[in-house]
Amino acid sequence: MADEPNAQRAKKLYIETVGCQMNVLDSELVVARLRDDGYELTDDIDQADAILYNTCSVRQHAEDKIYSALGRIKNLKREKPDLAIGVLGCMAQKDQGAILKRAPHVDVVIGPGQLGRVPELLARAKAEEKPQLAVSLARTAGGRDRVTASFESYDADREPTVRPSKFQAFLRVMMGCDKFCTYCIVPSVRGPEQSRSPDAIVAEARLLALQGVKEITLVGQTVNSYKYKTPDGRTTRLSDLLARLHEIEGVVRIKFITSFPNDMTDDLLQAVRDLPKVSRYIHVPAQSGCDEVLKRMKRLYTVALYDDMLARIRETIPGASVSSDFIVGFCGETDESFEKTARLLERSRFKNSFVFKYSPRAGTKADGLFADDVPEDAKRRRNHILLDLQAAISLEDNRGFVGREVDVLVEGLSQSTTRKPGWDGPDQLVGRTACDRIVVFPGPAGLAGETARVRIDQASAVTLFGGLAQEAAERPA
Ligand code: SAH
Ligand code: SF4
Ligand code: F3S
To answer: Closest Cα to atom 1, ligand 3: which residue?
Structure first.
């Protein structure tokens, strides 16, 4: 019984995840494993028997956040010596033993290629009363096969209850990255590029569909570089994979992120055009609009190639939306080079753009080769300029939807509207169009997971607002 002092109490797990979709997916898999081990999730850090941080190293800010969180829970560990604390993911791979020096109260440090070992290492840390470290090999530590093997694929367990929405799931198609953009830490912390076997991916997608998932997002650092050679010499490309996944009953939408400009082949664009379940949305970061900067970033394309690729997307896929990432204040970025980036953003008419201030990362090529010579206030100014330009474009393009009807895959209640303090209006639902635009409209919570036809009557830079088309038609004029 619950209140008997010796009753077996489920161990409580608190997990915090930062970084990209890879980490969101990894956390789901880690939780699935730990549930089998008798843990249940808690939102209350004070109740936790284990606190795990799944970390990101892409920018300094992401790391600072984790080190201060670790600082904050130092006292908790003093009060509860049995509390287990873990640092998982990219920062674990990057900083390794240095984490234990800086935060000696940490019990396990586990890189993204070793996550299958979380339960074992937590148990071992407790039994041996000493911290455990499990990371993969450095990119230069040996031959490619050995390094690749040290980043283990870990995709077996899925755990529906920890997904942000029960109708949506990520599905890994590739691990690692081989592009080595000079600013980027990802190839060192996530290891060599590896495509998963199409059979394994399709089997996992079927499992997700059985769990009630309607929307699957394929994830990879350069997802459109996906290529898998079977022993009979046949190659499966991302377009082939999309066609296979399209057959799965129950799945109504398929997305893929993130694409690399050079690998945007025509067969892929045609697949997006011809397969109705595939979202007409492509996230393909430009990073900069200046050839000299792109060259220093080693992005492997020119502005002309990017423009041409975008033109091919627009020609092939009617109504496609495209989004981008930009880095401002990269080494040697002058006012003139930044101007070129602003012009690229203006003419590209992205649905949205993610803008980041350059953050030097130890161990990357740029950090060794170039000075971080753009002052912080110039980075901040350029950041704002791009965000403002993008907001104006997004607003203008979104206004083009007013008066139109769109099909929305409903995700559930809109937290930002329905959960706002003081809100006493009807329930507001949120979902996305086939071109990935966010739509908010009043409707019953039971529509979650369904596709609804919505008439748009208002637009902001990030959201379209409207009402169910059926109801609008039935309302007296
Ligand atoms: N694989 C994806 C992106 C991975 S990281 C791709 O190639 O597009 C996500 C974004 O973080 C990048 O697109 C880039 O814009 C940004 N980023 C990566 N390293 C950075 C750094 N050192 N400083 C600032 N932003 C960075
Ligand atoms: Fe980083 Fe470039 Fe690889 Fe993207 S493609 S993960 S930016 S190295
Ligand atoms: Fe960050 Fe690792 Fe993703 S560094 S962006 S969590 S691959």
So the answer is: 56
